[in-house]
Amino acid sequence: MSWKVLIQLRKFATTQSATKSGKKLLEFNQIPGPKYYPFLGPLNDVMTLGKNEKLHLTVDEMHKKYGGIFRMKIDSIDTVFLSSADYIRSIFAYEGKYPKHPIPPAWMYFNQKYNIQRGLIFMNDEEWLNIRQVMNNFLLKDAEWSHKLIEMTCDNFTSKLKRILDSEDATVIENLEDELYLWSIYSILNLMLGSSTSEQTDREFDAKVWEFVNVVKKIFETSSKLMSIPPRLADKINMKVYKEFESYAHKSITLSRSLISILSNDMQSSENGLLRKMKSQNLSDEVIVRIFSDLIIAAGDTTVYTTLWLLHSIAKDAALSTKLRKDIGDNPKSMEAPLVRAALRETLRLYPVAPFIGRFIDTDAEIGNYSIPKGVLALASLYTSSRDPANFTDPLKFIPERWLRDENRQVMNPHASMPFAIGARSCVGKKIASYQIHSLITKILQQFTLESKNKEDVKLKLHLIGVPDKKIQIAFRKTLP
After folding, report:
1. What are the binding positions for heme in this chain (predicted)?
2. Which structural domains are found in the chain, ordered by start?
3. d(Cα 353, Cα 334) in Å, to the nearest integer?
4. How far is CA 415 from the centre of its chain?
């Protein structure tokens, strides 16, 4: 984001806060919110926020009680939750030159305890800016180099599905989530190498990938349970869940480095691979490994679950499947089908993999009618804002058409849904991830009929990211209707 845009956002935020009522700004301590009892310490988080997997629902109820902004302390950090679309947009006007976002406490403590240097997610200040600018060139400004590699990986996935479906009957893919994990990780590995790894590797390598999939799942599951428990305390009293998290975190780093080492040493990286591109920028091997290690840890989950939610939404609605196929037929080139793009955006609205996106306020701010001091953590409550009827018509319904230009009357405020955030620290992989999902969904709809086999409604729960609260069951049939 340019500084001109940042200045415009700041002017917008100031206008929203100071001129709406014409009143003097209220102080930070006048923002409503739940009571905080200092003598309870960390127990405040447990009592106020409840179960971690239902945090989005708890916060949603608080917004209904306190309004579009409320404050509380989380692990002694002054925090404001924002669900008003205008307030959410304002957050990014105050993120500064080196935006800082919240990191799960267990991850931060683990890195500090073992003095582990990590990738872009954990970097800050000048180091972050320098690496981010390099990655912007390859992943945002010019991402077309990745398209053929992504489509190749998607073709490998659909070919595998056909082998699994040994008859013309509808078959439930019992391990669909795991298969999507493999697809996502192989996509990243292929982008790194610039060619297909699936045809060049052996069973030992495949076994490492499978092990990595399971370890990453456990990292998110265990660290989610530690969100309301200070990790230093959990470590000190030898809590089982912390010891498990630490074990999985060590394994994930070891495995990701092993995968990268095998690829870079045993296979020829093409000029079109991200590995070769990054080396051309004189980045050290250690920095490259750090970036890729975190990339395959973080990007895997978010892409997998967004794809899974989208497949689930399509499988439940035969009429939608028909409309999407027609749209694909009218626009055969990948990423040119407007309704498929709209369906992805609608998925990210209803099922945000990141229900909360946050920034530490870099300078004294004015949001709403309140003065927000520097250092406060501002969290956008995307689950709440995305389901607010003030922002979307029929907000609980899956209506991809609302995102089409001729149907935008159903979107009163698009800033209520910012799955990739905005600003300098917005998701660096958003173009790559969008193309991955769009390409896979397109190829699946061209070759298979989908049917949901879930008898009960599937809802979102938190394991740091938004995941299904029960197994999604989809039957695939090789014949089209």
Report:
1. 427
2. 3-477 (1.10.630.10)
3. 24
4. 17
Q: What are phi and psi of 31, to 5 degrees?
A: -70, 130
C-alpha 451/C-alpha 471 separation (Å) is 14
Q: For the chain, state the CA radius of gyration.
A: 23
CA separation for the pair 169, 334 (Å, rounded): 28
Closest CA to 452 of 310, 343, 335, 351: 310
Cβ neighbours of 147 (radius 10 Å): 15
Quote the tokens at residue 434: 């969008």
Q: What angle do CA 167, 153, 185 make, to 5 degrees?
A: 105
Contacts 24+ apart (CB under 8 A), 328-333: 328/442, 328/445, 328/446
- Feature table: binding site: 427
3-state secondary structure of 229: coil
One DSSP character per residue, 400-432 reads: GGGGSGGGGGGBS-GGG--TT--STTS-TTHHH
**3-class secondary-structure state, position 74:** strand
Q: State the CB neighbour count (10 A cutoff) for residue 274.
A: 25
List the one residue out of 59, 129, 4, 34 whose CA is nearest residue 357: 59
| Bridge partner list, 70 | 81
Per-residue pLDDT of the chain (481 residues; tens, 9 = 90+): 444 444 455 555 544 444 444 558 999 999 999 987 776 666 667 677 778 899 999 999 999 999 999 999 987 899 999 999 999 999 999 999 999 999 999 999 999 999 999 999 999 999 999 999 999 999 999 889 999 999 999 999 999 999 888 777 789 998 999 999 999 988 988 888 887 665 445 567 778 888 988 898 899 889 988 887 889 989 999 999 999 999 999 998 888 888 877 776 655 556 678 888 888 898 888 898 888 888 887 777 899 999 999 999 999 999 999 999 999 988 766 567 999 999 999 999 999 999 999 999 999 999 999 999 999 999 999 999 999 999 999 999 999 999 997 755 667 788 899 999 999 999 999 999 999 999 999 999 999 999 999 999 999 999 889 999 999 999 999 877 7
Which residues 6+ apart lie within 8 Å of 7 measured at CB?
none
Residue type, 399: I
Summarize the annotated binding site for heme as residue ranges.
Answer: 427
E strands present in 251-398: 356-360, 365-367, 370-372, 377-381
Helix 176-193 × helix 240-266 angle, to 10°: 40
> In this structure, is the dihedral angle defined by the CA atoms of residues 280, 281, 283 and 289, taken in order, positive or negative?
negative
Instruction: Give the β-pairing of 460-463 and 370-372.
Output: unpaired
